[in-house]
Design brief:
Shape: globular
Number of helices: 10
Number of strands: 15
Low-confidence stretches: none
Distance between the termini: 43 Å
CATH architecture of one domain: 3-Layer(aba) Sandwich
Order of helices and strands: EHEEEHEEHEEHEEEHEEHEHHEHH
Largest sheet: 7 strands, parallel
Strand order of the largest sheet: 3-2-1-4-5-7-12
Mean pLDDT: 92
CATH topology of one domain: Rossmann fold
Helix content: 25-40%
Oligomer: single chain
Radius of gyration: 19 Å
Strand content: 15-25%
Amino acid sequence: MDQLKNNRIRKAFVLGASGYLGSHLVDELIKRGINTSVLVHKSPIKEQNQQVKAVRGSLDEFDWKRLENDLPDIIFHSARMSGNNKKTRSKQAIRNAESNQRLIKWLKTLATPPLLVYVSGTLVYGSHGNAQVDESVKPDPISFQREYFKAEKPILNSQNSGELPVVIVRPSWILGQGSWFKAFYLDYMKRKAKVPLYGKGENFMAFIHASDCAAMMVHAATYGTPGSILNLYSYPAITQHEFASIISMQTRLPIQKIPLSWLRFRFDKAVSEALSFNLKLSTNHQELWEKYQPYYPTIETCIGKVLN
């Protein structure tokens, strides 16, 4: 695949636009004046804007030929049917994989298929202690990704074959006022007036604000190389204890240690594994990000934005 050199995005189609990351992505596309359409199933999109066209359908049943009269330049895929335990996650992973295979089958029928930007995650790498982990490291899925990685395999296989223009992005911990940070930090702080520290807190974590994650996805689609896997993060990895300490300093709340056994009892093993997951994320694509200007250049400003 040839490198995309300032590939101007005119039209984008977003899967998962009503989700946590997808809603920020739609905001970013609108901000840039990009003609944006989204696939909407049950949940309405956040942004009611005349630039956003809602197309009704579900990921596993949508007739992709409906897009052929007005093909997008880019398809951003951040959609996933999820489950709340190992059994339901395994079931949904099969549905996700089948849905992704349907999408790939359609894309292969097109003379000039749009670029597919697929959102994965860094849990696919597994824990690696103090080693720096870049995009060349082979997947060793942990936690939720033990099941959900099955859905990524059809995308990964089509990328490896070179048959389709595909970029896979693997964001680090995405910070914002929703998703995991709300469930395991903001809600706990509101109830207990304390900052939680899960386990020993020695595990390394890399972070990115949801707005920066969305903007980096658009940047990757504009300047990146089809066939790439891109780790998305904004700051060098810090320990969970350092993360909790920054929150504690900004909120003036004390830190409270919470044993991982409590997470396993209250939720399940996957949650415990995710919050004790140890990864020093790095990248082989420094030159791609030299042109990118982050919204939140430091971890302190990022956390401050989320808390305020």
